[in-house]
Amino acid sequence: MLPYPEIDPVIFSIGPLSVQWYGLMYVFGFLSAWFLAKKRLSKPDAPISIKDFEDLFSYAIIGVALGARLGYVLFYQPAYYFSNPSQILAFWEGGMSFHGGLLGVIFAATLFGYRKKISLYKIFDFLAILTPPGLFFGRLGNFINGELWGRVTLSPLGMVFPHGGELPRYPTQLYEAILEGLVLFAILWIYSNKKRVQGHTAGLFLICYGSMRFLIEFIREPDAFLGFLLFNWVSMGQILSLPMILIGLVLFFRKDKMPQDKISKS
Fold first, then answer.
1. What is the pTM of this model?
2. Among 65, 213, 63, 39, which Cα is nearest to 126's?
3. How far apart are CA 219 and CA 149, in angstroms?
4. CA proximity to 192, closest of 57, 36, 50, 54
5. Which contacts (CB < 8 Å, 24+ apart) does range 151-157 have?
6. With contact defined as beta carbons under 8 Å apart, do 87 and 140 qualify?
């Protein structure tokens, strides 16, 4: 059994104000996206200008924050929040959904693309590359908080989490950090280093993330207030990941019949 490194979720406090690791991980995620974007945009065949990216970045931050929160409200606890509407925007109390955040970014990026008259495929391809590092840091934040752990296991990879009972559980937060963060980033970065049909990089992101998340959900403990939703083994995370995989397949295998300028580096 592996020891769980108990880290105080609060880095420091000044009066009523406290700085937590989970919030700092969001900052790290946005900073990593900014750094990677500037690196990719410094090349002569950059998909968008640096000025356009700065505007897009603002759209994306708002989209991911509102989408992640509203996604959690609608997908996971709609009855509670509709009965307590004042709690819907209480971000500080926790409760964020990746799938909701993804929808929020898609909506924000779509608004940006139409406003700037930039190909949506080009924007989605570009954002897909920037997303995995944020997933990596987000899952590290979950691990430090001791939340979203896996199911009980007798394997030597199990950990006893502070709020997970006395039995060891899979540290699925770390598995997701590695797969959805590091491995997915390597796949997308290498794939997008060559010219690809627009939309293929975004499609590959949806396929890989959806598949990785779907598989990890088999050893991840479902939310206590939801449990399993189908056949006593299908979780909400798996249900939400299936459309991602299907849409990703459509994007990845789409045939481009447009001229050569439709094909560009992501």
1. 0.89
2. 39
3. 9
4. 36
5. 151/219, 151/220, 151/221, 153/219, 156/1, 156/2, 157/2
6. no
Give the contacts of 109 (CB within 8 A, at least 6 positions apart). 56, 59, 60, 63, 120, 123, 124, 127
Taking the C-alpha atoms of residue 18 and residue 247, their distance in angstroms, rounded to an integer, is: 40
Spell 149-164 as b/e; 16+ CB within 10 A means b: bbeebeeebbbebeeb
Distance of alpha carbon 168 from alpha carbon 153, whole angstroms? 6
Q: 14 phi and psi, to 5 degrees?
A: -125, 100
Q: pLDDT tens digits, the chain, 266 residues: what are they? A: 899 998 898 898 888 888 889 889 989 999 999 999 998 898 877 888 889 999 999 999 999 989 999 998 988 888 888 998 888 887 766 678 889 999 999 999 999 999 999 999 999 999 999 999 999 999 999 999 999 999 999 999 999 999 899 999 999 999 999 999 999 999 999 999 888 999 999 999 999 999 999 999 999 999 887 888 888 889 999 999 999 999 999 999 987 754 334 434 44
